[in-house]
Specification:
The structure holds 3 protein chains of 3 kinds. By secondary structure, chain A is mostly beta strands. Chain A is 10% helix and 39% strand. In chain A, strands 5-11-10-7-8 form a 5-stranded mixed beta sheet, with no helix packed on it. In chain A, strands 12-2-14-15 form a 4-stranded antiparallel beta sheet, with no helix packed on it. The relative contact order of chain A is 0.25. By secondary structure, chain B is mainly β. Chain B has a single domain, classed as Beta Barrel (Porin). Chain B has 5 helices and 20 strands. Chain C is mainly α. The chains are: A mainly beta, B mainly beta, C mainly alpha. At the A-C interface, strand 7 and strand 8 of A face loops of C.
Chain lengths: 242, 449, 267
C-alpha cells in the first residue's frame, strides 16, 4: 500500500514538474486549436514578372522569370501569407522566446519565406544563399532600424524586442525584393499556406480576438471562445476594396 | 546777434523737421527665410536686430554655405524681394519752439511755445532686393520711396570669399558702413527714438559736409570674418559726400575701420567688443561762379575724425549694447570758416571736440516679445569758439518700448510696437536758453514680407 | 542598529541609482554639459520650423525641403560613430549640429556658442524614448589607414563590384546605377545615391577617415547599409581608396561583368 502511494506521489511529482513548466509552443494537453481558411472574394490581379536583369546573378537563378508575391491567391480563392494570430485575451502573461531561431533566406533574390512570424527577442537568422551581395534592411515603426550588407554566406543574426505586425523588409540594391517580419509577444500565430488554410494548435482556453493580417488586403478580426481541448473553425474573407 | 540766433534756431528747426520726416530704412529680409526655410528668429534676436547666426550669414554674403546657396536651388515661386511698411499712430511734441505770438502775423514777434502734432502715419516703404547673384557674388538694391520723393538708397555688389578665404570680401557701391551697432537694424521706430544721435552729430556752428557714420556711403569696403564670426574686421574707403551721388562734394576720401572680437562666457552667452574709427577730410569752400558754389569742386579740405569703442553683451535673456564715441572737427569746419580766409576765425577759435555714448538694453522674453530701453548722451568737451555756450549741443535721450510679434513665419512677419522717447537738447539754442524737450509716442505695426 | 543599517543601505542605494540615472540622462561633450531647458528655448528659436514642434521633422517648412528634416522621434540618425541600428553618441549629434549637413537645408550652427549647441543636443534627445531606454553601443574603432597604392585601389574596385555598390552608385560612381532610381529613404521619400564624381562634400563630414566611417556605420534611415560585418578593416580601406580615386577622377570604372552573360535559353 505504501509503495503504491509512494509511486503515485513520485509520478505525480514528475508529472507536475513536467506540466507546470509550459514552454511556448510545447503541447499543452488542454490546448484548443483553431482551424480555418483565409479567402479572397473578388477578382485579383495576377502576379507580374519581376525584371532582375540589373543583377545578372539574380537573373541567372531563375529559368523562368520570378513573379511578384504580394498577393498570392490559390485556385479556391485561398490567400497565402496571411498571418493569423491571437490579439486580445492573453492578459499580461509574458512568454519566453523559443531557443530555435526564426529564419529568413534570400534565394534567387527573393525572400523565402515571404512572410516570417516570430516572437519578441527570438533570434532571427538571415541567410544569403545567392551568389550576390544583398543588404538586409528592415524598416520598423516600433523597433530600431538597422541596415546591413550581407555577402554570400555571411551570417546575420538579430532580434526585435517589441511587438510589431508587421515589419517590411527590403534589399536596397535589389529593389523588387520585399518581405515581412511579424513579431509577437506570444507564440500563438501562424502563416497560411498556399491554399490559405491554417491550423493554430495548443491554444490555452479563453476568449480572444483573432486577427488575420495580409500585406495588401489589410486586417480582419473576429471574436472567439475556445474551451479546453476544443477545436473551432474560423474563416476570414477579404473582399476586394478592403 | 539776432541773425546768429536765428541761424541757430534755423538749424535746430531743420533738425527737428528732418526728425519729423525721418524715414529710417531698416532691414529684416523674409526672402532669406523663405529661401532656406528658417524662421526669422534664427537670424534675428528679434527682427530687425541680428544675432550671431544672422550676422555670420550676412558676412558670408547672404550665404549659409551648405551647398544650397546658388540661385538654382531656389523654388520657382521664390522672390528675392522684401517689402517693409510701418503704419503707425504717433504723437510728437516739442516744448520750446519759437512761434509767432499771433499765428499768421510774422511781425508779432517770436515766443516759445509747445508744438504738438499727432495722427496716423506711415514710416516710409522699404523695398529691398538682396541675396546672391551666383555663388559668392551677393548684392543689395534698395530704391528709396519717401512721402514726397523717390531715389536710390542702397545699391552694391560684393565679391565674397575671395581666393576661397572668408577673410577677404570686396564690396562696391552705395552701402551702409559696418557700423559698430547697426542702426539699420535698430528695434525702435519713433522720430526721436529711431536713430543713434552719435551717428549723426554735428556740433553747433559747424558746417562739416560729412554729417555722420549713420549715412549710407559711396565707395568700397574690404571685410572679413572668422568661420563662426567671432572675429570681424571691415575697412571702407569712401568719398566724402554723405552718399550723395553726382560728385557734389569734394575730391576727398574718408577711411572707416571697424574691428571686433567675440568670446563665449559660460552660462551667459556671446560677448563682443570692438573699436572703430572714421577719419576724413571735408571741404571748407568751393569754387564759385557768379557767387554760386560749383558742386564737386570742394577745396580747402580740413580733417575730422570719429573714434570709439563698443560692446554687445548677452547675459542670459538680457542683452546690452554699449557705445562710446569721441569726435573732433578741424577749427575751420567747426567755425564754418573757409580755410582760405583764416582772418575770419573768431578770437579763441579751436576745433570742437565732444564725447558721446549710449546704452541700449533688451529683455528677450522670447523670440516674439522683446522689451527695449535706451539712453544716449552727447557732451561737448570743447566748443568751437568762446561765444558758444559750454553746454550748447549737448543732448540726452531716453527711449522705452516693446515689440511683440504675433505673426512670425518664414513668409512674413508682423510686429506690434509701442514706444515712448524723449530727447532733451541743452538750452543755449532755444529762445529762452532753457532746455528743449521733444517727446515722441508711437504705436503701430511693423510689417515685413 | 537595524534601522541605521537599512538607512545606510537606502542611502547607498539611492546614491547608486541617482548616479546611474544621471549618467544615463546626462548630455556631455568634453566638459560641456547640456541643459534641456535652455535647449528647448534654443530649439524654438532656431530649429522648430524645419524639425517641427514635436521633433518629428514635420515643421512648417518641411514640405518644401529635400531631403526632409530629421525625425528625432525615431532615434535613427545618419551621421554616427556607432554601429547600424544604434543611437548616436552625444558627440555625433554635437558634430552634426556644428558642421551642418552638406547639400541639405541643415546649416552649420557654428555661430552658436558651444554651450548653446550642447544644450540643443540635450533637448533633441528628449524627443525619442530610446535615449532613456537604450545606451548607444560603443563607437567603432577606426584603425590607422594603410597607405594607398594602385593595388589597393584595384582591390577596392573589385569590392565595389562584388559588394554590389555599383547597383546603386553606378559603374563610374555617378550615382546612376540600375537600382538608383527606385531608392527611397525610410520615410518613403525618393533619395539618390551619392555621386562620387560630383565634387560634392559628404553629408557626414569630410575627414581622412570619413569614407571608412560611413562604410562601417552605414547611414541609418537611408538605403546605405553598414559593411561592418562584411568587410575586414583593410578591405574597407581598399574600398575607401577606390572611392577617393573615383572622386578625383583617376579611377577606371568598375570592370568585371559589365554586361550580363547571355542566359541559357529555357526549353
Amino acid at each position: 500500500m505504501r509503495t503504491k502511494s509512494f509511486l503515485v506521489q513520485i509520478i505525480a511529482a514528475i508529472g507536475l514538474t513536467l506540466f507546470s513548466h509550459v514552454p511556448t509552443g510545447v503541447a499543452d494537453a488542454s490546448g484548443g486549436s483553431l482551424k480555418g481558411t483565409a479567402k479572397f472574394d473578388g477578382t485579383a490581379l495576377k502576379p507580374t514578372k519581376i525584371d532582375m536583369s540589373s543583377d545578372p546573378n539574380c537573373a541567372k537563378a531563375h529559368t523562368t522569370p520570378a513573379t511578384t508575391e504580394d498577393l498570392l491567391i490559390g485556385a479556391n480563392g485561398g490567400v497565402e501569407n496571411v498571418v493569423v494570430y491571437l490579439s486580445d485575451g492573453l492578459g499580461d502573461k509574458t512568454f519566453e522566446p523559443p531557443a530555435q531561431p526564426a529564419v529568413i533566406e534570400q534565394k534567387g533574390c527573393q525572400y523565402k519565406p515571404h512572410v516570417v512570424a516570430m516572437q519578441t527577442n527570438q533570434k532571427l537568422d538571415v541567410v544569403n544563399d545567392d551568389q550576390t551581395t544583398h543588404n538586409i534592411h528592415p524598416m520598423p515603426n516600433n523597433n530600431r532600424e538597422w541596415n546591413k550588407t550581407q555577402p554570400h554566406g555571411m551570417p546575420v543574426e538579430e532580434t526585435f524586442p517589441r511587438e510589431e505586425i508587421a515589419i517590411p523588409v527590403k534589399c536596397n540594391v535589389h529593389p523588387w525584393m520585399r518581405g515581412y517580419i511579424a513579431v509577437f509577444k506570444h507564440p500563438y500565430f501562424i502563416v497560411t499556406d498556399k491554399d490559405g488554410s491554417f491550423d493554430l494548435k495548443d491554444l490555452p482556453p479563453g476568449t480572444y480576438t483573432i486577427k488575420a493580417w495580409h500585406e495588401k488586403l489589410g486586417t480582419q478580426s473576429q471574436k472567439i471562445t475556445i474551451g479546453a481541448g476544443e477545436t473551432k473553425t474560423v474563416d476570414f474573407v477579404f473582399k476586394s476594396g478592403s | 546777434m539776432r541773425i546768429a540766433l536765428a541761424k541757430r534756431i534755423g538749424t535746430h528747426l531743420l533738425l527737428g523737421t528732418a526728425l519729423l520726416m525721418g524715414v529710417r530704412p531698416a532691414y529684416a529680409i523674409p526672402a532669406f527665410a523663405r529661401k532656406y526655410g528658417l524662421p526669422c528668429s534664427a537670424c534675428h534676436e528679434a527682427w530687425p536686430m541680428l544675432n550671431n547666426f544672422g550676422q555670420t550669414f550676412k558676412d558670408n554674403g547672404y550665404q549659409l554655405g551648405n551647398d544650397r546657396d546658388a540661385p538654382i536651388y531656389q523654388q520657382p515661386a521664390y522672390w528675392p524681394i522684401m517689402f517693409r511698411v510701418s503704419p503707425t499712430w504717433h504723437r510728437e511734441s516739442n516744448n520750446r519752439v519759437p512761434v509767432d505770438k499771433t499765428p499768421g502775423a510774422a511781425s508779432s514777434g517770436l515766443v516759445e511755445s509747445t508744438v504738438t502734432a499727432s495722427g496716423f502715419d506711415v514710416g516710409g516703404v522699404d523695398i529691398v532686393a538682396a541675396g546672391t547673384l551666383s555663388r559668392n557674388i551677393s548684392f543689395f538694391v534698395q530704391p528709396f520711396i519717401g512721402n514726397s520723393s523717390a531715389g536710390f538708397a542702397q545699391g552694391w555688389v560684393r565679391l565674397d570669399n575671395l581666393f576661397k578665404s572668408r577673410w577677404l570680401n570686396f564690396k562696391m557701391g552705395k552701402f551702409e558702413l559696418d557700423e559698430p551697432i547697426s542702426q539699420e537694424r535698430t528695434l525702435t521706430l519713433s522720430n526721436t527714438g529711431a536713430i543713434y544721435y552719435n551717428y549723426f552729430f554735428t556740433p553747433p556752428g559747424d558746417n562739416n559736409f560729412f554729417t555722420g557714420i549713420g549715412n549710407l556711403q559711396l565707395g568700397t569696403e574690404v571685410s572679413g570674418h572668422s568661420e563662426n564670426d567671432y572675429t570681424r574686421y571691415s575697412v571702407a574707403v569712401v568719398s566724402n559726400n554723405n552718399g550723395a551721388t553726382g560728385l557734389q562734394a569734394s575730391q576727398a576720401y574718408n577711411v572707416y575701420t571697424n574691428f571686433n572680437q567675440a568670446f563665449e562666457v559660460s552660462g551667459l552667452g556671446l560677448q563682443r567688443m570692438g573699436v572703430y574709427s572714421y577719419v576724413g577730410q571735408s571741404p571748407t569752400f568751393y569754387q564759385t561762379s557768379g557767387g554760386n558754389p560749383i558742386p564737386g569742386t570742394g577745396m580747402g579740405n580740413r580733417g575730422f575724425y570719429r573714434v570709439g569703442a563698443y560692446g554687445q553683451w548677452y547675459l542670459g535673456k538680457f542683452d546690452f549694447e554699449t557705445f562710446y564715441e569721441h569726435g573732433h572737427d578741424n577749427v575751420f569746419l567747426g567755425n564754418s570758416v573757409p580755410a582760405n580766409q583764416p582772418e575770419k576765425l573768431p578770437a579763441g577759435a579751436v576745433g570742437p571736440s565732444w564725447n558721446g555714448g549710449f546704452v541700449e538694453a533688451h529683455y528677450d522674453y522670447s523670440p516674439r516679445l522683446i522689451l527695449i530701453g535706451k539712453y544716449e548722451l552727447i557732451r561737448m568737451s570743447q566748443q568751437a569758439n568762446p561765444s558758444i555756450r559750454a553746454n550748447a549741443g549737448n543732448l540726452d535721450t531716453w527711449t522705452v518700448g516693446y515689440r511683440w510679434y504675433p505673426i512670425m513665419n518664414p513668409r512674413a512677419g508682423l510686429a506690434w510696437v509701442q514706444e515712448y522717447s524723449r530727447i532733451v537738447n541743452a538750452g543755449p539754442q532755444t529762445l529762452s536758453g532753457k532746455d528743449d524737450i521733444n517727446n515722441s509716442f508711437l504705436m503701430g505695426f511693423d510689417f515685413d514680407f | 542598529m537595524p534601522i541605521k543599517i537599512s538607512l545606510a543601505a537606502g542611502a547607498v542605494f539611492f546614491f547608486l541609482v541617482s548616479s546611474l540615472s544621471s549618467t544615463a540622462q546626462e548630455t556631455r561633450v568634453g566638459n560641456l554639459i547640456g541643459n534641456v531647458k535652455q535647449g528647448k528655448a534654443l530649439y524654438q528659436r532656431y530649429c522648430i520650423f524645419c524639425h517641427g514642434q514635436y521633433g518629428d521633422g514635420a515643421g512648417e517648412s518641411a514640405p518644401y525641403l529635400d531631403p526632409k528634416p530629421r525625425d528625432f522621434t525615431k532615434g535613427t540618425f545618419k551621421c554616427r560613430s556607432t554601429p547600424s541600428g544604434s543611437l548616436p553618441l552625444d558627440t555625433d549629434l554635437y558634430d552634426t549640429i556644428s558642421r551642418g549637413v552638406h547639400a541639405s537645408g541643415m546649416p552649420s550652427w557654428k555661430p552658436l556658442t558651444r554651450e548653446s549647441r550642447i544644450d540643443l543636443v540635450a533637448y533633441i534627445k528628449t524627443f525619442s524614448p530610446r535615449f532613456q531606454e537604450e545606451k548607444p553601443v560603443a563607437p567603432l574603432v577606426i584603425p590607422p589607414e594603410p597607405p594607398t597604392s594602385p593595388q589597393s585601389v584595384a582591390r577596392g574596385s573589385e569590392l565595389f563590384q562584388s559588394m554590389n555598390c555599383w547597383l546603386c552608385h553606378g559603374k563610374e560612381g555617378r550615382g546612376n546605377g540600375p537600382s538608383a532610381s527606385s531608392l527611397t529613404d525610410s520615410k518613403n521619400y525618393p533619395i539618390t545615391p551619392f555621386d562620387f564624381t560630383s565634387g560634392n562634400r559628404f553629408k557626414c563630414g569630410e575627414s581622412d577617415s570619413g569614407i571608412f566611417r560611413d562604410l562601417m556605420t552605414g547611414l541609418d534611415g537611408t538605403p546605405m547599409p553598414s559593411f561592418a560585418d562584411a568587410l575586414k578593416p583593410d578591405q574597407a580601406w581598399d574600398l575607401a581608396h577606390y572611392i577617393d580615386a573615383l572622386r578625383s577622377g583617376t579611377a577606371k570604372p568598375s570592370q568585371a561583368q559589365a554586361e550580363p552573360k547571355p542566359e541559357p535559353k529555357a526549353n
